[in-house]
What does this fold into?
Amino acid sequence: MAGSNKFLPFSFDYTKYFVSLRQNNIEERMKDETTERLSPQSESGEAPINDILENAEAVARRVFESIQALAGTETCKGVQIARLKDWAIANNHWISDIKKLGTFSDRGSENEVYLSFEDEHIIYKLNDFRYSDDNLTPFFNRIKAHNELFPECQYTLVGFAENQENKVCAVLKQGFVLSEREALPQEIGDEMVRLGFHKEDDGYFSNGDYDIFDAVPNNVLMGVDGHLYFIDTIIFKSGTGGLNTYRSLSPRCSEK
It folds into this structure.
């Protein structure tokens, strides 16, 4: 996933950049003491936050199965997104004002990234489902795979919202990584081998179960603790056409 630190120069001082944004966050909060907390689902008695991913996936799956049965097609992403918005509004998982998320910090190929007002250790990513070409199944598979492979920087689905381009997005919460620099290609490759993957191409690795794309320096950080953090990769189940989908939708490929 394109996400935090995307499109910033390689020599950019991430720590100073984000410290400055944190200071701006504090100033904004002092100016607006009426800012509402971003946890309506816990206040409304609705499903716990950890259930949102499973429930949203069930909504999308029912749409997929209905359209497949009626029309014989798997192309239904637009309908799924519309139904998920309705479901999110009805169940108090819709975030109507994205400014309440925090300070906007970055825009990648598929994500808008915000630094949380409430917790300096949290960022939010508004994912516009770019890499789910025909239906949302790859999106849900991808979040689960990411959390399985990279639990140290896992995603939590906290709701849905419209981004600055008025596209309905999944709002993903992720821990903020304090990093000293971007990981080097050799470091990334060595770590992927350690995890049981082999290199197919630059930034593209596979273990036969999952294909991982965009495992490149600006998506993998070297933490101040000396560990690598894969904050933002594209993951498809192997054998599901992920390579073609990635090549057709990735700005990285269109630049070549």
